[in-house]
Amino acid sequence: MSVYIHETSRTFHLQNQQFSYIMKVLPNGHMGQLYFGRPIHDRENYDYLLEKCIRSHSASPDLLEGFSLEHVRQEYPVYGSADFRQGAVEILQENGSRLCDFVYRGYRIIEGKPRLTGLPATYVEDESDAQTLVLNLSDAVTGVELELFYTVFREMGVLTRSAHFINKGSKAVQLTRAMSLSLDLPDDQYDWIQFSGSWARERMPVTHRLSEGIHAIESLRGHSSHQQNPFVILKRPRTDEFSGEAMGFSFVYSGNFLAQAEVDTYQVTRFMMGIHPTWFSWKLESGDDFTTPEVVLAYTREGLNDLSQTFHRLFQNHLIRGEYRHKVRPILINNWEATYFDFNEEKLLAIAAKAKECGVEMFVLDDGWFGARRNDYAGLGDWYPAKELLPDGIAGLSEKIEQMGMKFGLWFEPEMVNPDSDLYRAHPDWVLQIPDRKNSLARHQLVLDFSRPEVVDYIYGLVSGILRESRISYVKWDMNRSITECGSQAYPADRQGEIFHRYILGVYDLYERLTAEFPHILFESCAGGGGRFDAGLLYYAPQAWTSDDTDAVERIKIQYGTSYGYPVSSMGSHVSAVPNHQLNRITPLKTRAETAFFGTYGYELDLNRLSEEEIADVRKYTQFMKDHRELLQFGTFYRLRSPFESNEPAWMVVSGDQKEAIVGSFRILSKANQAFMRLRLAGLREDLLYEVEGMGTFYGDELMGAGLVTSDAATGKVGENIMPSGDFSSVIYLLKAVK
Ligand code: GLA
Fold first, then answer.
1. Among 571, 600, 634, which residue terminates a domain?
2. Of 314, 393, 548, 701, which sits most exposed with the smallest number of CB within 10 A?
3. Is residue 714 very low, low, confident or very high in pLDDT (cuts 50, 70, 90)?
4. Which residue minimizes the CA distance to atom 7 of ligand 1?
5. Which domain holds residue 97?
6. Around 605, how many Cα atoms within 13 Å sit in the side-chain half-sphere?
7. Which of 380, 443, 543, 548 is the pocket-test mutation for ligand 1 (most atoms within 8 Å of CB)?
8. pLDDT digit string (tens) for 668-710?
9. Are residues 131 and 238 in the same domain?
10. What pTM did the predictor assign?
11. Are residues 310 and 366 both part of a single domain?
């Protein structure tokens, strides 16, 4: 890893073993982008990469010979002058001007990686793991200074970026657009992959070929959203899972975002990612500063699996914090789908007792335990245990659960309030709202104004009180509606554009305080399932409820899609009842368990309703997870066959020393007289002999080259470990290197 600085040509070359990223100061003082891709030799000067032509209709404020902003690639472009593409920054000034002109002033290098105050971000513990280049620019007219941060990780194809503004001028300005990253690429030969969906159908990969014009995804819902995940891949058309060039952009942020690629008429691709400019502005009084959230840019030449593995390693080692960062996750049972709101202590204890018998380690009480929350019309915000359900409160229940030998976890939805609640009656002004306008309800609830510190303090007081007085090992932090009418009574008119962002900062603040005060508690984030599954929240909560859809067939797709950007250890996955509550589909218990193995694993049903035979299986699956969760959650994950393209999707995890692996192989619909099927594995050592349980021994090169024969009863049995016949089947293959 090196940062080469060439003072004479004013060139900056960031390099590690995976990529080179090269910039230079342009003739007009702006920062130009020269190259991003495979590592290349360092040299004093790469000016041959600068386009020096003036075309018809191009403009140049400085009348510089052969230089047009429209035709050079830039680092942090501005709209309004001679570049007609979308800009990364816009600053509204007192005189109505929106133009700025950020000119290079200098640089500094920081060993390691500085923190971003109040924001989640990747980090290094050892300074030698990363280097940060900070470029200083300034706009002479407004006096606003800009610092562009570039951190290169030593061991990984990762570069992170963010921008920091300081108003050194004498007048206030409004920042109305401040992207975290802008990157101009010299061609448009890319497939853009986005992860789209809706409630219960999150993160389905959707691919578009880039072409002239703008392609964008966004969230304007106040949370990163089920609809579009703040994660995009650009890959070369021929890149597949195992080879080829690709780059991934992950926004370490949980609120409104924009990710877009603008291809101009010369096939230059401008990629941008940051806080969505719609309804965003930030007032900078003289002396104030603003930091954008960070974007993680990962790069590979070895295919999409390698790109995903880079994100998995980065997030597990340099984003997720706390005790559970590298720790296997407890196997839990959650009562939501078992009881919904219809429970009392006796019922909960019966569910917990049966789960304990099956080896489950933690009982989680979901929604409905507080205030008047007997259904979803009332009680949100009143975080007091409902004594009619729980005579000894949460403290008493958690103690009883611990006496049974299990840990206890609890659900909160801290950011919300039902109009029918004591909290709302006492503080009707504590919700997001716009004067003289009606508030929209969603799931009968309103959104608390987390831009106000006193609201966050109040909720902190209640939640931390319960965490302190009870024996709580896990918190599920939910967020069940999108934000509408985003205004705050606590801020003046010229600061209303700050509320979306201030809201998220309030959420981060509460997370920070709770996770710091209760380091032993495992936090799982949730937003109606996977509506806020993003890198920002992983900084506080090492796992997230992947989706409210617990159907095994849908979960294969959702977990497969999620795996492009997020590690297995972050995906909450539960075995639920059949017929499935979201789809009414009946899948075998085996398939439900074997899908959930590739996640944090838990149950979401009343085990008392299962037969003796099924309970024996549940015990077996629970034990399997205990025996293998280290590898399942922290091994190297490979997508082998896509559920979006194949009736037989498959994935696998491989241990760090490559001596163990677990393959999950699924078949959606059964077929008569099937083909003779093989599955080519990945990530093994060619020269090692592996025992595949129930199948025989094979060399790594055989398993990766010829493949593991997975044929079943339809074609004649091969080995003992065969796919059961019937729809929605699965089989797990355990591989162990033999001497
Ligand atoms: C959301 C969550 C569910 C459950 C309910 C409770 O929908 O995603 O898992 O907690 O809220 O109301």
1. 634
2. 701
3. low
4. 528
5. 2-53+66-318
6. 23
7. 548
8. 999 888 888 899 999 999 999 999 999 999 999 999 999 999 8
9. yes
10. 0.98
11. no
